[in-house]
Each structure stands twice: as C-alpha cells, then as structure tokens.
C-alpha cells in the first residue's frame, strides 16, 4: 500500500527568499533538508549537529576553491579541528582509490567514531563521502552539502551511498542516512550550464513518476529554471525533495516503491557505463534514458505515443540529449543485466503506467532493441 503524495506545503512565492525545510521521516534517523539562499553564511544552518572534536570536509579540486574556506569558517566554532580532503574532480574518481584516501586520512589522524564528515560538492562527492561515513568505524555521522542541482534534488537525499566498480555503476555501497542536508541555492550560481541541465533531468523525472501537476509546472517554468531564477529553483528543489522524501519514507531500502526513482536509469546507466564514466553526465544519461523508458511504456501499451513526444520535448528544451549513442544491442543488454533492480536474470524497467504513476516491468529483448533503435542516431550497426 502506498500513501498518497502530499501536496506541496507552501507556495513558490513563500520559498523565494527565506529557507524552507523538508523533513525526511525515518523515525530516530529523521533529518531535515534545508533549502534556500544564503544558508552557507547563516550560523544557524550549522548549529545543533552532532558534537565532535574533528570535522572532515570531503570535496574536490573544482569545488574547493569556491566554497571550502567558507565552510571551514562556518564550522570552526563547532570543532577543535576542521580538516579537509580534496579529491580529483570527476565520476571516474568515484572509486576505491578516492575512498581509500578519505579512510586513510581519518585513520592517519586517529579520528574517533564521533568525527563528523561533510560532503561538499555534487553527487560524486556526496555518494563517496556518505559511503566513507557508513564504513569508517562502522559508521560516523555525515552532513550533505550539495552544490549541484542534481545533488540538491536527488543524490544528497535518501541515504544511498556508493562508489563505482569498473563492471558497474554504484555497485559497492550502503544505505546510510545523513544527519542534515544543506542545499544553498546560491551555490548553483557557479554551476556550468551543462551541469544545471543534468540536474533538471532528475527534476523532470519526478513529474511522470509521481506528480502530473509538477510536470506541468516544470514545462511552464523551464525558462525560469534555465535562467537560474531563485524562486523557480526553490520550488523545483523543494518539490523534488518532497517527492523523494515521500518515496524514501515508505521504502528506504528499495524493496519496491523506491525503484520508481530510477525512471530512465536502466537505459541511462547503460549509456554512462558503455561510453565510459565521464563521457555523458549522469543526468544526460538519465534524460535520454527517460525518452527510451517512455517509448517502452508506449510500446507496452501503457501510455499513448503523445506521452513520448511530451517527454522528448521537455527534455530537449532543458538542454538534454534525446538521441541515444550507437552501441551494439548485445552491449546494451549486457550492461543492463548488471542493474540492481533485476531479479532472476530478467532486466526490469521503470515504466510509466499513467501520468504520475510508475511501475516495474520486464520486456522481451526484441522489444527493448526496437525501443533503442527508434531513438538512436543513424549510422552503422
Ligand atoms: N545517491 C543517490 O541517490 C544518487 C542519485 C542520483 C545520482 N547519484 C550520483 O550522483 C553523481 C552525479 O552527481 P552530479 O551530477 O552532482 O555530478 P558531480 O558530483 O560530478 O558534479 C558535477 C560537476 O560540477 C562540479 N561542481 C559541483 N558543484 C559546483 C558548483 N557549485 N559550482 C561549479 N562547479 C560545481 C563538480 O566538481 C563536477 O565537475 C553520480 O555519481 C550518480 O551516480 C546518486
Ligand atoms: Zn539519477
């Protein structure tokens, strides 16, 4: 049984300036997502967190010059020592070597099990830092400070943490919840356009899977979002987090409902892994994957062809790819067979059953091949 998705709790206007909070309700692991402008430099953002002697900020060499000193200044009053590990930027570094650098830093400094980790950056840093927090001394608290749109609307929320393995994305990880998420919308000002669009892919995702009205809102406000209008961003981040909170609150460990958050991801991960991490951005893979998953929904007779056109249009307007790269079909299928949603060797896809409602289905290989072919760039097979 799934509980109905609650309506958005406040209007976009109310969330334009001040911070809003979305709660993730997981009993004694309940935590807040703070969303707004100016959060970074507001002392109250950083108060009331678990006390410790040491805080370790994990970030990368792109984000560090922008925000590391500011975060250090804010945290200094709360800890004896505020340390940092600056990793090389990129999805290809979401791996054992980077994880080891974080763990090694903690051990070398004899960091105790109260040490608080701060993930300062996008989803790569968030996933890796969360996993480090999950396994260091069997678990230390961590705070997500997402600085990409994608991380603010998706990866920092819900407690999935992981690193990649050469054989598959996010294949080594843990469910481990942060103690707070701080989504300062001002950090999005420095984000490259391509990354902004990648974040929009995950925002768009929430419409067809859970909230038809939100899809219509995105279509109507896409230009404002692309122009980084703060009140539009505030609403988009908040509504996305509300939907994710609603899903995760019912199915934290993905025994069922939570899988719907992977709409577009089965195809998208295949593109990401198939081309090599870093070639297509995660959000770009998901975007194109949503076109394919919409096509599959149509070919399974669940949705009208007009739905595929509608999704293609909004994804394209968001500056995202709608045409899949050419890969041999066996390669696609091999890549999709390692997906965590699969059971008993059958590939399972998130499909849209009606606007605002998603489900999981298997599909014959031949049909999957047709779906991919219908949205692949022309060229040799
Ligand atoms: N855990 C989850 O539930 C979940 C959900 C979705 C995605 N993910 C993961 O998230 C990752 C993708 O996250 P992402 O899209 O944030 O990528 P990312 O972390 O690689 O960040 C994108 C780029 O933006 C840079 N950057 C970050 N913040 C910036 C800022 N404020 N200004 C300028 N540049 C900035 C980064 O250094 C990087 O170059 C993938 O590994 C994906 O698997 C996880
Ligand atoms: Zn995603």
From TrEMBL:
<dbReference type="GO" id="GO:0009073">
    <property type="term" value="P:aromatic amino acid family biosynthetic process"/>
</dbReference>
<dbReference type="Pfam" id="PF24621">
    <property type="entry name" value="DHQS_C"/>
</dbReference>
<feature type="binding site">
    <location>
        <begin position="89"/>
        <end position="94"/>
    </location>
    <ligand>
        <name>NAD(+)</name>
    </ligand>
</feature>
<feature type="domain" description="3-dehydroquinate synthase C-terminal">
    <location>
        <begin position="199"/>
        <end position="342"/>
    </location>
</feature>
<keyword id="KW-0963">Cytoplasm</keyword>
<dbReference type="GO" id="GO:0000166">
    <property type="term" value="F:nucleotide binding"/>
</dbReference>
<keyword id="KW-0479">Metal-binding</keyword>
<feature type="binding site">
    <location>
        <begin position="187"/>
        <end position="190"/>
    </location>
    <ligand>
        <name>NAD(+)</name>
    </ligand>
</feature>
<keyword id="KW-0520">NAD</keyword>
<dbReference type="GO" id="GO:0008652">
    <property type="term" value="P:amino acid biosynthetic process"/>
</dbReference>
<feature type="binding site">
    <location>
        <position position="160"/>
    </location>
    <ligand>
        <name>NAD(+)</name>
    </ligand>
</feature>
<keyword id="KW-0547">Nucleotide-binding</keyword>
<keyword id="KW-0456">Lyase</keyword>
<dbReference type="GO" id="GO:0009423">
    <property type="term" value="P:chorismate biosynthetic process"/>
</dbReference>
<keyword id="KW-0170">Cobalt</keyword>
<feature type="domain" description="3-dehydroquinate synthase N-terminal">
    <location>
        <begin position="85"/>
        <end position="197"/>
    </location>
</feature>
<feature type="binding site">
    <location>
        <position position="265"/>
    </location>
    <ligand>
        <name>Zn(2+)</name>
    </ligand>
</feature>
<feature type="binding site">
    <location>
        <position position="169"/>
    </location>
    <ligand>
        <name>NAD(+)</name>
    </ligand>
</feature>
<dbReference type="Pfam" id="PF01761">
    <property type="entry name" value="DHQ_synthase"/>
</dbReference>
<comment type="function">
    <text>Catalyzes the conversion of 3-deoxy-D-arabino-heptulosonate 7-phosphate (DAHP) to dehydroquinate (DHQ).</text>
</comment>
<comment type="similarity">
    <text>Belongs to the sugar phosphate cyclases superfamily. Dehydroquinate synthase family.</text>
</comment>
<feature type="binding site">
    <location>
        <begin position="147"/>
        <end position="148"/>
    </location>
    <ligand>
        <name>NAD(+)</name>
    </ligand>
</feature>
<dbReference type="InterPro" id="IPR016037">
    <property type="entry name" value="DHQ_synth_AroB"/>
</dbReference>
<dbReference type="InterPro" id="IPR030960">
    <property type="entry name" value="DHQS/DOIS_N"/>
</dbReference>
<dbReference type="GO" id="GO:0003856">
    <property type="term" value="F:3-dehydroquinate synthase activity"/>
</dbReference>
<keyword id="KW-0057">Aromatic amino acid biosynthesis</keyword>
<dbReference type="GO" id="GO:0046872">
    <property type="term" value="F:metal ion binding"/>
</dbReference>
<comment type="pathway">
    <text>Metabolic intermediate biosynthesis; chorismate biosynthesis; chorismate from D-erythrose 4-phosphate and phosphoenolpyruvate: step 2/7.</text>
</comment>
<keyword id="KW-0862">Zinc</keyword>
<dbReference type="GO" id="GO:0005737">
    <property type="term" value="C:cytoplasm"/>
</dbReference>
<dbReference type="InterPro" id="IPR030963">
    <property type="entry name" value="DHQ_synth_fam"/>
</dbReference>
<feature type="binding site">
    <location>
        <position position="202"/>
    </location>
    <ligand>
        <name>Zn(2+)</name>
    </ligand>
</feature>
<feature type="binding site">
    <location>
        <position position="282"/>
    </location>
    <ligand>
        <name>Zn(2+)</name>
    </ligand>
</feature>
<keyword id="KW-0028">Amino-acid biosynthesis</keyword>
<dbReference type="InterPro" id="IPR050071">
    <property type="entry name" value="Dehydroquinate_synthase"/>
</dbReference>
<protein>
    <recommendedName>
        <fullName>3-dehydroquinate synthase</fullName>
        <ecNumber>4.2.3.4</ecNumber>
    </recommendedName>
</protein>
<feature type="binding site">
    <location>
        <begin position="123"/>
        <end position="127"/>
    </location>
    <ligand>
        <name>NAD(+)</name>
    </ligand>
</feature>
<dbReference type="InterPro" id="IPR056179">
    <property type="entry name" value="DHQS_C"/>
</dbReference>
């Amino acid at each position: 049984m799934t509980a109905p998705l609650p309506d958005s709790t406040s209007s976009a206007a109310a969330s334009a300036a001040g911070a809003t909070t979305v709660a993730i309700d997981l009993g004694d692991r309940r935590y807040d997502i703070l969303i707004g402008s100016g959060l970074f430099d507001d002392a109250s953002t950083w108060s009331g967190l678990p006390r410790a002697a040491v805080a370790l900020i994990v970030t990368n060499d792109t984000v560090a010059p922008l925000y590391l000193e500011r975060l250090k200044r804010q945290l200094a009053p709360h800890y004896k020592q505020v340390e940092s590990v600056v990793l090389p930027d990129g999805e290809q570094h979401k791996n054992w070597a980077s994880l080891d650098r974080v763990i090694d830093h903690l051990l070398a400094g004899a960091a105790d099990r109260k040490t608080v980790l701060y993930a300062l950056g996008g989803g790569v840093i968030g996933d890796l830092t969360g996993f480090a927090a999950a396994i260091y001394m069997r678990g230390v608290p961590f705070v997500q400070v997402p600085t990409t749109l994608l991380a603010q609307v998706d990866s920092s929320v819900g407690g999935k943490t992981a690193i990649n393995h050469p054989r598959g994305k996010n294949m080594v990880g843990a469910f481990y919840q942060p103690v707070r998420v701080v989504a300062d919308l001002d950090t999005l000002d420095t984000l490259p356009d391509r990354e902004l669009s990648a974040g929009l892919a995950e925002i768009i995702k929430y419409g067809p899977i859970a909230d038809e009205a939100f899809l219509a809102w995105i279509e109507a406000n896409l230009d404002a979002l692309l122009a980084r209008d703060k009140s539009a961003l505030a609403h988009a981040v908040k509504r996305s987090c509300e939907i994710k909170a609603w899903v995760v609150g019912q199915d934290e460990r993905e025994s069922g409902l939570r899988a719907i958050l992977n709409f577009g991801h089965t195809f998208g991960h295949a593109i990401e892994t198939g081309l090599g991490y870093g070639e297509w951005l995660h959000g770009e893979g998901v975007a194109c994957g949503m076109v394919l998953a919409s096509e599959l929904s149509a070919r399974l007779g669940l949705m009208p062809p007009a739905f595929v056109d509608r999704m293609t249009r909004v994804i394209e307007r968001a500056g995202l790819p709608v045409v899949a790269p050419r890969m041999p079909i066996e390669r696609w299928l091999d890549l999709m067979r390692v997906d965590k949603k699969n059971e008993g060797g059958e590939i399972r896809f998130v499909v849209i059953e009606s606007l605002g409602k998603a489900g999981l289905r298997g599909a014959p290989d031949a049909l999957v091949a047709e779906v991919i072919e219908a949205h692949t760039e022309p060229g040799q097979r």
